[in-house]
């Protein structure tokens, strides 16, 4: 095509875009200015907004998008503790508000179970509220609160057979954090306060065990500083400080109040939305107030990786080390645990999704000779009958080797149906 013809074509295109104003100058697009405008608070949302939240401030548009579901599942287990059949009802509700600067999420879920002997009860209840707000172009604040209640069924796989009535556990927590970008540096500060209360345990060998000595307040704070070494790789260091306050002394007459300190360093990266990974190594020190208790020093290993080459496939794995309170029915001072998990999700088509998981854990109780090792695996599939109904099938294997109570394992098969809004 001749140079004169190309010039005529450009003129025609510009004239059409200007709706016939042939005498006007062609618009000059300043790409740098557009990028800066997009980061200006109040002009654009911080992230792409789904269609259903596209116009949250229009008259008549509800401030929250409410969703709910209810599931019914039957599970058959066969293991060391014998056979059992459990029926569970799982209602859940969520409300989401996505605004220009602030996002809010409210979630609630419960599990109601009917045991083999006909016993009815609530085995789990979770209520959560969380929010995120963009203060300015470089600063984001987040916070939340949660309340959870849980109680195992006496016939739960892996539970010690001598436990006739497991304890009720109630945990409430409040958390908050702020993230600030300073050039190539990322600074984050997070804090959590939690309260956990335990009910008594009824056992066939020793009667009723009072777990009130394990009731605890926990406070944790962490400071994280990262350097964006490349557009993909971030180098970071993190320091943590924690405190445990117990209500009263344990069976040995000592309180396990302690101050914990952690320091770790590592790498984190994200490549093109396909792979995200992080790995860190550090040291943790658990310092008991009571001089008669031996302090705990341990290495901390943490790593995770997620691979999502397309929306249909998701692979993830994680490794973590924790030092935490022992929980109920225990004589130790603290539990040190190493855990590893892996998950796989694959959407075959619009109506079928496949799932798989595996986990491994090794833990020991400081101040006690008790150790424990667990591993398990699971397979599952979800079949979407229509836009509101799905059927699921699952198989799970669990193995637990505890030095105090022996080896227990179980195989569980379950089938369920879930109806969604």
From TrEMBL:
It comes from the Bacteria. Residues 1-24 form the signal peptide. Keywords: Signal. Gene3D superfamilies: Porin. The keyword Signal applies. InterPro entries: BBP2_2 (IPR018759), Porin_dom_sf (IPR023614). This is Outer membrane beta-barrel protein.
